[in-house]
Amino acid sequence: MAELGKNLIGLEWSSQGKAVLKAVNPKGLAELEGEFYTSTETEVNRAMEKAHNAWLAYRKVDGKSKAAFLRAIADEIEALGDTLIERVMQESGLPQARITGERGRTCGQLRLFAQLVEEGSWTEAIIDTAVPDRQPAPKPDIRRMLTAIGPVVVFTASNFPLAFSTAGGDTASALAAGCPVVVKAHESHLGTNALIAGAIRKAAADAGMPDGVFSALNGEGYRTGQLLVEHPQTKAVAFTGSLRGGKALFDLAAKRPEPIPVFAEMGSVNPVVFLPGYLSQNTEKAAQALAGSVNLGVGQFCTNPGLVFVLDHIGLPDFLAALKTAFAGSAPGTMLNPGIHRNFEFRKMGLLKETAVVTEFEWAGDADETQLQARQAFASVTGQDFIQNPHLHEEIFGPFTLVVRCADPQELANAVTALSGQLTASIWGETGELNGHTGLIDVLQSKVGRLIFNGMPTGVEVCHAMQHGGPYPATTDSRFTSVGTTAVKRFARPVAYQDCPDEILPAELKKDNPLGIWRTLDGALSKNKG
Ligand code: NAP
User: Fold this and answer.
1) Is any ligand 1 atom within 6 A of the Cβ of residue 343?
2) 272-453: in CATH 3.40.309.10
3) CATH T-level topology, domain 3-266+480-489
4) Whose CA is nearest to atom 43 of ligand 1?
5) For the segment 341-371, what is each residue's pLDDT rounded down to a tens digit?
6) Which of 336, 346, 1, 9 is nearest to 186 (CA)?
7) I need a surface site. Which of 94, 273, 333, 501 has the fewest CB within 10 A?
8) 241: CA distance to ligand 1 center in Å?
């Protein structure tokens, strides 16, 4: 681990910083093996200069070679075997099955982006052929496609040590777009980051990628991240974490002499609406599904259902009783780090003390503080009180949910209307019952990136159609997703070539369509020459 305590700058390991960081096991707070050098300003500058130089070559690397690189990263991650799994478990406190599954998701994601760039149509080639004899003026030949934006800085997430981390979706999509990546490692996963960075370094060297296509730096407090965002060679930022952190980095990027986009995925309370017909017919099932989703991964998912909207109808007491039983059946779990545990208990207790809030359930059995175990809970509030107290709308990151008891459908619609932007919303209804609530569905749709019917928000499929991003404050740019293949679009910008000689055009735009990709040719999707 000694070599791996260093910062990775392109292909070179570096340890100029005087200070070292130690990783901590959330279960018992023991320090783990390895000393991790913080990065200096000189190292930040070197990583960004190398990334810029690498970009000049990497942006032109063809889809097949990029695909081979992405697949090699997945292979190298798998080759780390149990060493990786054990380290992630030690640093995150998450169980083996979850980590093995997350590794599968991470490698599957890399291979999906490999397929995307190998096929090539993601570049959205659009061609308007010339009409030289058009009157009153000739129409020029214009060909447009997406091209890599430049070096991307990635802030990794605390709650997905693999899938939203060093080789996670942000890194995979940026590399797929043709952008070098500089990762700011999360303090909670220093050893995991080092192992994955080593795997990417080997894949880059073996695949003959330019030196600087990937770097990973340990932080020195917030300074490292701020230097990275401010660096003139940084062209975009990807972030997953808190609203405070994401907004601070967004503001910093906007204040640069050359502002750059920040794609931050931040908080979400993911409202769930149970319509009364469904709840009366499926009391137990609804309670089990909700409790399972709230407590999954100790509630540490950005898609955790933190708010539940119901009508104060005759079946509600049975549902609340079933929910208590389901919550009681879930043992307290270890949270990811002391800060997240402290925040959870503080914010949950603050909310439970509110006069308008009724504590319906709080785990009363043992919960070991030294293991950062969280006491899961749920509470309820009336629709009126919810509407009047916007702070009740805020995310409590962990195993907690607030049931909003609405007096009638209008109050429910008003309560949902009062919400800010979210990643997801879910609505559960009997067949036919949903048809009677299209107005409510419209309101939910206007607030979110993903609308779920008769399902829970946790579990985000990595696929072509996924949208994981919603209106602010869920993300800083709701036009994009951080999960699924269209995530690549965050790191590409359109460029149009006018009357460009065919031999100079990129392969995607040449008349012969040598890549055989789908292009929009004079207004129609086609693989034809033109
Ligand atoms: P965080 O505090 O926002 O930190 C995420 C990353 O950004 C870390 O690398 C952090 O650096 C860096 N950072 C944060 N603020 C910064 C600033 N002002 N300047 C420069 N760098 C900054 O998130 P977290 O540590 O993952 O978890 C904390 C809270 O975030 C949780 O309690 C939860 O509420 C929320 N969260 C949300 C999601 C989600 O998916 N929406 C996921 C995870 C966490 P350091 O490593 O130096 O701190």
Assistant:
1) yes
2) yes
3) Aldehyde Dehydrogenase; Chain A, domain 1 (3.40.605)
4) 241
5) 999 999 999 999 999 999 999 999 999 999 9
6) 336
7) 501
8) 4
